[in-house]
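User: For this week's homework, look closely at the record that follows, marking any run of repeated tokens, and judge whether sequence predicts the tokens.
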Amino acid sequence: MTKPNTYLFDFYGVLLKQDAPGQLKRVFRAVGEPEKETKLQEIYEELRPDLDAGRVSEINYWNQIKLRAQLEFLDPQEAISADYAGLEEADPEMVNFALSLKQAGHHIGVLSNIPKGLAQIVKHHNQSWLDQLDALVFSCDIGAAKPELPAFHAAQEALGVPASEIVFIDDRLENVEAAREAGMQAFVFTSLAQLKKDLEHE
């Protein structure tokens, strides 16, 4: 196995803090129709890959949810604001670890499923450390979302190294399996301590 010199990180659940239950609760409050929350969540998750990949606009995404879940009171702009609130916060420990790899001479990149509006918020809030990375690959910019293989191919191209030299780190097993299918080494992220153990034995 080729010894890697390049590390590719996911955003949410790895470099950025994630609060999926809280995120959905904010959306539910914005919609204000408790009896339809289960249906809303189902459609929210079903259509999300197309939003993340930029195949539909944010307004169209929420209008589709409104139509299919029969949400009488949903305001798309209010839903977008609720959906993105608080999602720009980095995990300082993980960011410092990634930057330490960069300082040690490794190439560092990000591959994230993220809608265009949220990507702009995240980049603005985290510019100081994101500017130090070698590649930022966002699903909204490439027309593909993990675990779709073109997303990994785009990240490999952006990093400019063979897939076998890349270690991909993500908190979702399906994305890790897809990265391996694309030829990368990959680990499911659970904690920094576990990641360090995984990398020691790569």
About this structure: Residues 37-52 form the longest helix (16 residues). Strands lie at 6-9, 107-112, 135-138, 166-170, 185-188. The chain has two domains: 6-17+88-200, 20-84. Residues 31 and 74 are 5 Å apart (CA to CA).
